[in-house]
Amino acid sequence: MESFPKNAGNQGFGGLRVDEVSRAFDNAVKQEIAIKQKKGQPVARYDTETGRAYLENVDGIREYI
């Protein structure tokens, strides 16, 4: 099993810098959330204040799970 170096510095993945990988990941997540909302599906989220996961419906109502 291949492992990443302990200190990769600013090296990323596949020749991309860490900030580029982070930005691409962030954009992908935002796109998936937008697709789910457009389809009327709830989106799983995490409330850092309560430490609980919840589903957020398109109308904004939260259902804690």
Structural descriptors:
three-stranded antiparallel beta sheet, about 60 residues, alpha+beta, 1 helix, about 20% strand
Descriptive account of the structure:
- It contains 1 helix and 3 strands.
- It is an alpha+beta fold.
- It has one domain.
- β1 and β2 (52-56) form a beta hairpin.
- It is elongated and about 40 Å long.
Helix content: 25-40%
- Give the domain tally: 1
Strand residues, percent: 15-25%
Distance between the termini: 36 Å
* Rounded Rg: 17 Å
Structural class estimated from helices and strands: alpha+beta
SSE sequence, one letter per element: HEEE
Unreliably modeled segments: none
Report mean pLDDT, rounded to a whole number.
Answer: 86
* Largest sheet: number of strands, sense, barrel closure: 3 strands, antiparallel
Number of strands: 3
Principal-axis shape equals: elongated
Helix count, DSSP H or I runs of 4 or more residues:
1
Strand order, biggest sheet?
A: 1-2-3
SSE order and pairing:
Layout: H1 18-38, E1 43-47, E2 52-56, E3 62-64
Antiparallel strand pairs: 1-2, 2-3
Question: TL;DR?
Answer:
The protein has one helix spanning 18-38, and strands spanning 43-47, 52-56, 62-64. The protein has 65 residues and is α+β, with helices and mostly antiparallel strands. A hairpin with a 4-residue loop joins strand 1 and strand 2 (52-56).
